[in-house]
Amino acid sequence: MLEAVLIDLFSLPANLQNNIQGLLHNTLEAIEKCSAIRAPCVYVMCCQRQGSERKGEQEFLLAALRGFQSLRRRLEVVCAQTTAAALYTIKQRLDEKDLSIIKVILPTIRKDLMKVYIDHLFTAVYQFEFEDLQAISDSESLQIPEHQHEGQILPSQDVALIQSEIQMYLESLPSLKGEITILRSSLIPDDIFLHGFTTRTGGISYIPTLSSCNLFSSSKRRDPQVVVKENLRRLANAAGFNPEAFHRVKVDHANAVCIMGKTEPADYDGIVTDQKGVTLAAPGADCIPVLFADPVRRACGAAHSGWKGTLLGVSMATVNAMVSEYGCNMKDILVVLGPSVGPCCYKLPHESAKEFHRIDPRCVRLFDSANPYIDIRRATRILLERGGILPENIQDDSITDQNQNITLCTACHPDKFYSHFRDGTNFGTQIGFISIKD
Questions:
Q1: Neighbours of 245 (CB within 10 A)
Q2: Does residue 237 sit in the same domain as residue 309?
Q3: Potential cystine with 336: which of 124, 168, 323, 395 (Cβ 3.0-4.6 Å)?
Q4: Residue 373 sits in which domain range?
């Protein structure tokens, strides 16, 4: 069922400009007639003009809106200086109401441009249909086309201009929930390595479960890649790394490891390098972002360790890659476990819990229950120590000085961290990152 209608009055062609009031009136009338049971939300998008010209256009729009009682409470005019600004504002309104099925009514000449904006500012969560503004206005009925004709591909320079406009707009937005905050470990020497674990503050993501410094986008979430890229740019500025030399693991919840400079696997949960100035990163929103540093051989790594990756030994696989590729000595490698879901909150079905019980019974609490509590951090430490990592070279939540604890429970601290376990499917993601200083 159609949930929202977007009427695009930006940059109307000359043959339509003189009848903007009539166009809008007829279009709203068509929407009202076809939406008698449940009126969709309607957003009218127009260019924000200066002075008397702006006032005149607004009067025209207001006049056209009078009389549409069924739409009045669900109708909003959004004026902005750029299409990116107007469309992103409308996206916020859609997300506030959890709306995803949208019809865009616009001049045919704007369709291909609008598709580029939508491709950048929205994800696959949303469904869009397109209708010609003049056709609807003339027919006074809201058509649902049986099929959509593909538009022409825009010239690359036009796409680049749109991308630049979007980027400039996102860069202008204020940070939400305070400034960028980065947690750092005292175990990793900061004269050799740049590293940290992010929290949820200081970005521009506005959806509550993603706010504000979400660092991962997917087709199932409402935060588009351009917003994640802007959050990363702000993080890079605060931390001091180059976002163009940033490499995040391609999560598969397994134990494959990517060696920087060699053929990249399709998916991998660990990554290592000895190249200076290259930032490696692993995500976490309950799963553990694990950082590795060898100050002797000057090599580093990052791994994503959820419960499956923990059982498959992804952390030791990353250590072994550093040893085999860069000649690292096991006793020189430092390992830090970042914010992740703690044994206070994390449960798994009994069958999965058995695997952790086999590693060590202390990794499971209430083992005889249907869903025992699991300590994936303790399991990670045990497997690392068995593999040859010195106990004193591992930093996690078991350290004596809790003031140095950065392995906080993500589910217990909603003000600091994202949590899939706590927030559901539209959750945000933080990261652990590390690089070798130039």
A1: 14
A2: yes
A3: 395
A4: 182-436
271 and 311 co-located in one domain: yes
Same domain, 325 and 307: yes
Contact criterion met (CB below 8 Å) for 64 and 25: yes
Residue 287: which CATH number?
Answer: 3.60.140.10
Give 287's contacts (C-beta < 8 A, 6+ positions apart): 304, 305, 306, 307, 309, 340, 341
Residue 397 domain-assigned? yes
How many beta carbons lie within 10 A of that of residue 376, not counting itself? 26
Q: Is residue 145 part of a domain?
A: no
Residue 123 domain-assigned (yes or no): yes
177 domain-assigned = no
Euclidean distance between CA atoms 337 and 11, whole angstroms: 52
Residue-level length of the chain: 438
Domain count across the chain? 2
Q: Are 156 and 201 in a shared domain?
A: no
Query: Which CATH number goes with the domain that contains 95?
Result: 3.40.50
pTM given for the model: 0.93
Whether 197 contacts 406, CB under 8 Å: yes
Question: Are 75 and 204 part of one and the same domain?
Answer: no
